[in-house]
Amino acid sequence: MPIDKVSEQNKPESAPHNLGTASVPPILQYLDCSKAMGIDIKSALINSRFPAHLLEDDTARIQGTDFQALLLELIRTCKSENFGLSTSQYVQPASYVVLGYISMNCRTVKEALEKAMPYEKLVGDMGVTEFEDIDIGGKTGIKMTWKCNYTHPEVIPHMVDNVLASWVTYCRWLSNRPEQAPEEIWLTREKPSNQETEQQYREIFRCPIKFGQPSNSLFISQQQLEMPLRRADPLLLQTLEQHAQTQLNELTSDQDIVIKATRALKEIMKSEPPRKERLAETLGISGRTLQRKLQAADSSYQELLDQVRKESAEYYLAYTQLSMGDIASHLGFSDTRSFHRSFKLWSNTTPGEFRQLKQGS
Fold it and tell me: Which of 29, 81, 112, 277 is the most exposed, having the fewest neighbouring CB atoms within 10 Å of its CB?
């Protein structure tokens, strides 16, 4: 039910939630599967307002909010409980960007995990991987857990299925052992509603699966961790690690100022109109330094302001009953007409049409 009013005290801090960014290759994995399922990709991109032109650049970073919106559109279009699971069968080395090539040149599964996972941010901010040493029915091993950072309840289970099943599928390819399987799988999602759907889980994972668990995890024995991979190259591995570290340093440095500036801008806009000078003051730097740092991150103050305004406007329109005038004021527009014009430019629809679409009235 829409909220009648959003006060400064009651406004959720997570609205809109920062989902970070994603690289292009993992998005293409979902699109490749969707195309094979007969989904009209062009329509899905348009309906989700996804910046399709960025898909032509493998080095581009996509806003997490855009990726999540696209996934939601694909999930609702295909109407399959197993969409995420099905996408795992389209994984390839490039799906993990440089991480895929690092793992290809490791000696064992254990080394691949140790070498590649520190760079998983290069793939995207969709989630984080954690490891825990455990005992598996008398065997030593690890519990490998993935924690999803995305927020939409329809998207999360499909993304989890994709990640865990992609790991298993890719590991089989790396080791050239299609029969290999984890000792056990845990999933937080409930047991599928029909046997056919559940059977697909068993066909892909080929191990005991427990639904409704406290985490999304793979249990891997020490014997499986020591399994040799097919094409280890220590010299190439070293070069790839150096390349990955350079990319990570650049990404972290670039995103650091963008993330800090975005968060600061959101805080400023809770109590006063946005101004570049006020943002620079909040960050403890000069306006010129702010401009230079944002340019180095391939961004700008106006781009950040537009993104924050767009995300906030979409939240207010979808989940509140604030008037257009109040929303315009919250976002620092001089009048409703300016807000209306800007929103249509961002979203290719009017604020009223967007609210009607999201609230269904």
Answer: 277
Residue limits of CATH 1.10.10.60 in the chain: 255-359
Where does the chain show beta strands of DSSP type E? 21-23, 61-63, 127-136, 139-148, 184-186, 209-210, 217-221
Residue ranges of the chain that CATH labels 3.90.1520? 21-232
CA angle 321, 354, 360 (to 5 degrees): 70
Supply the DSSP symbol for 3.
B
pLDDT tens, N- to C-terminus, the chain (361 residues): 333 333 333 333 333 456 888 999 999 999 999 999 999 999 999 999 898 988 988 888 888 889 999 999 999 999 999 999 999 999 998 899 999 999 999 999 999 999 999 999 999 999 999 999 998 878 899 999 999 999 999 999 999 999 999 999 999 999 999 999 999 999 999 999 889 999 999 999 999 999 999 999 999 999 999 999 988 999 999 999 999 999 998 787 666 788 889 888 988 888 888 999 999 998 888 998 898 888 777 788 999 999 899 988 988 898 888 999 999 998 999 999 999 999 999 988 999 999 988 887 5
Cβ of 182: how many Cβ atoms within 10 Å? Answer: 24
Q: What CATH number has the domain spanning 21-232? A: 3.90.1520
Which long-range contacts link 51-59 to residues 24+ away (Cβ below 8 Å)? 54/24, 55/24, 55/27, 55/28, 55/31, 57/24, 58/23, 58/24, 58/25, 58/94, 59/24
Q: CA-based Rg of the chain, rounded to a whole angstrom?
A: 22
Structure token digits, residue 130: 């954690």
Report how far Cα 175 is from the mean position of its chain's Cα atoms: 27
User: Is domain 255-359 in CATH 3.30.70.930, yes or no?
Assistant: no
Cα 315 to Cα 3, 11, 118, 320: the distances in Å are: 11, 11, 33, 8
Integer CA distances (angstroms), 285 to 30, 178, 292, 294, 305, in order = 41, 55, 11, 12, 18
Question: DSSP letter at 238?
Answer: H
3-state secondary structure of 228: strand
Residue 293: count of CB within 10 angstroms of its CB:
20
- What does the block give as tokens for 27? 């998005």
